[in-house]
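FAQ

Q: What does a record look like?
A: Structure on top, sequence underneath. For example:
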């Protein structure tokens, strides 16, 4: 892959015009993105949900983890399904181009290419959102009403169960007597 500095080369406007021209030509010839417009294609809203789950909805993301773009394509998957016609990696391609390649990946690998996010977004092999089944819908579990037993607080009695009482002898000497108390 040839390195091109970010600020050199054709401007974004020229690149955008060239991309639109290539896309139009591909549609006219019946190849390329035509698969994205088929009856089995998922809606753009469904792909937006998958992208929101995969990359936070950022279609131009390249975090350095080996996955690129809104739908987090690996470079080998992107090139293997024809994404090299648009850009070297998915993050450099437009949203529409990424969705076109995603439709090809969906047809080839199924929704398992995005195992968690395809379930969350409702993406199926046919492309349309699947109706909710009993296994995917979490049933509301009725909570059993448990009657709480009222427990009286125990009164903690001091270890001493007696009281010392003063007593006096006839001669006036003082002494103490243990007097046990019932509780």
């Amino acid at each position: 892959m040839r390195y091109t500095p970010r600020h050199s080369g054709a401007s974004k406007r020229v690149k955008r015009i060239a991309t639109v021209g290539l896309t139009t030509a591909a549609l006219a010839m019946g190849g390329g993105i035509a698969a994205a417009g088929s009856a089995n294609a998922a809606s753009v809203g469904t792909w937006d949900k998958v992208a929101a789950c995969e990359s936070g909805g950022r279609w131009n993301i390249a975090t350095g983890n080996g996955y690129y773009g809104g739908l987090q394509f690996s470079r080998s998957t992107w090139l293997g399904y024809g994404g090299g016609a648009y850009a070297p990696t998915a993050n450099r391609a437009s949203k529409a181009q990424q969705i076109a390649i995603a439709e090809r990946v969906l047809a080839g690998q199924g929704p398992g290419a995005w195992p968690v996010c395809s379930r969350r977004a409702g993406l199926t092999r046919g492309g349309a959102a699947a109706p909710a089944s009993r296994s995917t819908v979490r049933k509301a579990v009725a909570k059993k009403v448990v009657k709480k037993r009222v427990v009286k607080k125990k009164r903690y009695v001091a270890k001493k169960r007696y009281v010392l009482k003063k007593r006096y002898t006839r001669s006036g000497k003082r002494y103490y007597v243990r007097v046990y108390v019932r509780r």
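Q: Is there anything notable about this one?
A: The longest helix spans residues 12-29.
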